[in-house]
Amino acid sequence: MAEAAVSSTEATQPKSPAISFINSNKGKPLLVANNYVFKLNKTTTTTKYWICTLNGCSAKVHTDLNSQLIKTIGDHNHLAEKEKLEVREFREKVKQRAINETTPIPRIFDEECAKAMLSDATIAVLPSECEMTFPCVFGLLPNRQKSTYHFMFNELKSIALQMQLNFAPKTIMSDFEPGLLTVVSAELATVTHSSCYFHFTQAIYRAIQRVGLSTSYNDDDDVKQYCRKLMALPLLPEAIIEDTYDDLIATMPKQLKDTLNDLLEYFQQQWFVKVPISQWCVHGLNIRTNNNAEGELFLLFNSKYHFLMFNIAFHSRFNRRVQVNHPNIWSFIKILQGEENRFHHMYVQFSAGLGIRQKQAKTIAIQRRIDNLGQRYYDGAISAMEYLDALSFTVAKQKK
């Protein structure tokens, strides 16, 4: 009976916690026990003394010099934060891979996320490496024919009905692919459709190269400034773009006009005849570029969280994941699965209240400058030509 009593007593004793070790951000050892983290306080000739990392908590752990548990002392005055511990371990894995491999860090991040099978609570406190733009649909189209684009929209509408969603995009942003522009007008006639400002400036610079003005653009300040004024036209209010363009041409020195003649003919034909001003004017729009997506079409939904982005020419981040021009179907599916996993992490973080990544100081300064110029124009402090001239200084030189 005595032996039975002893066994019963032993059964009620708390089990010694399993311990493990991780490194701090500064590379110092941390002890983990029961999802609590301890830091090394001091070391004697026989014992290491560990204290809880939370200031004010009296819980302690003693180990021998070989890091074998001797005893635990005291209770914690706070709850364990398993999620933060998982994040620490996750970051350590990413860090070690980044040190030892040549794999790009964003790819390591995505791969470790996929392998870790993290809980939603943990994902919510993970560091975010992305903008809050959710890629939901990849449209792998065989060509750029109008019939193909019509088929794509019909499929999307059908899928939306099956998912009990209202396919009612609020804003569409795309490049200037002619077939797409026509189909968007037919399929979504009441939607605000704006083209991408980045692609507009790229188109102008390609035209500069095509008509043989690259050297003049780089070496002649007058040529460069007038080209930038053309690039800045979409930033003006739509109602004054054509008149301002006419004034720009009328006041241009004859020699400069002769130099830019081929470029001006292209601009007149492309941006006033083929593509209406309403299509490329981005004045007052919150989204001036889809360069973060590098895709053909961006749709912003009315729903609180729903964004849809088609990627026919896949954005650069996705291309870095693919790495080859023609992956086999199994590799491609694996990449898409990784994208789905990444999207889930982004959505959980967004739902948990994680804010959108802060814009760079340079971006904020440029936006503030554009807004201030607009206000000065509306207040009558500057003319339309002065407005355009000032906006031209916000147009960055496009790379070859």
Automatic annotation (TrEMBL):
Keyword list (alphabetical) reads: Metal-binding, Zinc, Zinc-finger
Q: Does the keyword Zinc apply?
A: yes
- InterPro entries for the chain: MULE_transposase_dom, Znf_FLYWCH
Tell me the GO molecular function terms: zinc ion binding
Q: Which residues form the MULE transposase domain?
A: 131-202
Pinpoint the FLYWCH-type domain residues. Answer: 21-78
Name the Pfam families on file: FLYWCH, MULE
Membrane-crossing residues?
A: none
Q: Which positions are tagged coiled coil? A: none
- The molecule here is called MULE transposase domain-containing protein
Q: What is the lineage of its organism?
A: Eukaryota, Metazoa, Spiralia, Gnathifera, Rotifera
